Amino acid sequence: MNYKDIINDIKNRNIKNTYLFYGKEYYLIENAIKEIKLTLNDGMIDFNLDIIDGREITLDQLISSIETLPFMDDRKIVILKDFELLKGKKKNFSDEDEKYFAEYIDNIPQTTTLVFVVYGDIDKRKSLVKKISENGIVFNCDKLSDMDLFKWVKKRFDKNNVIIDNAQIMYFINSEGYLDKSSEKTLSDLENEINKISSFVGKENKVTNDIIDQLSQKKVENDIFKLIDYIGQKNSSDAMKILNDMIYEGESVFGIFSMIARQFKVIMQVRQLQIQGHTSKSIAERLKLHPFVVGKALKQTKNFSDEVIVDILNSILESDFKIKNGLVRDTLSIEMLISKYCKKGS
């Protein structure tokens, strides 16, 4: 059964006794939880919905929640998040508890739906996983397939009332790199990019390849690389031009500060690993970064000492405080920071 079929069954009130949703695509997991919640009588939801931290619950507490009868509704829903037994951990459960609970899954009251949610991987060897599958559904919320992703992206753009052709949808998908094997991007990331593009274009206006390029996350990352390069080269005019372009294209000053800080922290890390004798490839693997990012950081180590980087990071923290307390305008603050470190001898 695919994800769409599962959601349609839930919407049609064809609900299983047990579910296990796991994986890295949090958007799909949260959507499934939302649809399951909607099956309850809204006026009685406080009585018939338990959301439990699976890292802290004990066996007795869990069974008590499962066996509590619904109040003025046909069903009670128990959502158990990050249950330790599904991850191969046993903080609150003994071997006997685990065996008992796995067998108990066969006897969950018909008036209760038990939903296991794990944000990440599970231990598929566990007998509990097999029991859940026998009594309900186990589904890995992984990346969407090509066609499903296309439909999902199109639906989000349509919802924002902007015009986009199929060719531009494909261009957007390819630009974002969501389907790349090494990509850590999620549907939530794509939705943020879709909303940013839609806001920039405006309702009833058309999305073009140029606009996608102009606002893409890859372009933002490249702009940050260029900005830091120009600061390292003491090139104030080009650094300011990049900054002004980013602000014009909708990037917040806080976001720019955050990305600058992140890249400088990467520069310090790769320098230390390089000193220890690691290659560019092994640095990328250890830090779980794209080789391109590591390559840029290695080049940028030549322009910034650790002392200067620490000073820049402290300046960013100070600027953040001043902006949030109304002591300085955000754009002026970041312009002052760039000017300071573009000066000779800084």
UniProtKB/TrEMBL annotation:
A single GO BP: DNA-templated DNA replication
Domain named DNA polymerase III delta subunit-like C-terminal: residues: 221-341
GO cellular component: DNA polymerase III complex
This enzyme's EC code(s): 2.7.7.7
Protein name: DNA polymerase III subunit delta
Domain DNA polymerase III delta N-terminal, first and last residues per copy: 19-141
Enzyme class: transferase
Gene3D superfamilies tied to this protein: 1.10.8.60, 1.20.272.10, P-loop containing nucleotide triphosphate hydrolases (3.40.50.300)
Reactions catalysed according to its record: DNA(n) + a 2'-deoxyribonucleoside 5'-triphosphate = DNA(n+1) + diphosphate
InterPro entries: DNA_pol3_clamp-load_cplx_C, DNA_pol3_delta-like_C, DNA_pol3_delta_N, DNA_polIII_delta, P-loop_NTPase
Protein family: Belongs to the DNA polymerase HolA subunit family.
Organism for this UniProt entry: Romboutsia ilealis
Gene Ontology MF term list: DNA binding; DNA-directed DNA polymerase activity
Record key words, sorted: DNA replication, DNA-directed DNA polymerase, Nucleotidyltransferase, Transferase
